[in-house]
Amino acid sequence: MPIAFVLINAELGAETDLLNQLKNMESVKYVYVLYGAYDLVVKVEAPDNEMLKRTISNNIRQLKNVRSTLTMTVIE
Prior knowledge:
- This protein is an alpha+beta fold.
- About 30% of the residues lie in helices and about 35% in strands.
- The protein is built from 2 helices and 4 strands; from the N terminus they run E-H-E-E-H-E.
- It has helices at about 15-25, 50-60, and strands at about 5-10, 30-35, 40-45, 65-75.
- It has a 4-stranded antiparallel β-sheet with strand order 2-3-1-4, with helices on one face.
- Strand 2 and strand 3 (about 40-45) form a beta hairpin.
């Protein structure tokens, strides 16, 4: 099963709102709020690489308060 970790920079003060939106996405397995260079880290699992790509590109990256992302795809 394809897995990726997505690091997110959020608009100031939007972390909790993003946390709640991300938790409701089917392919999102874990979401954590961070201190440091990034505001959230998301673990995404999907049945295939195409679904993983669509979840990240079309769902996560398109959320209103997402400023930028860094995606790390797991290789097994």
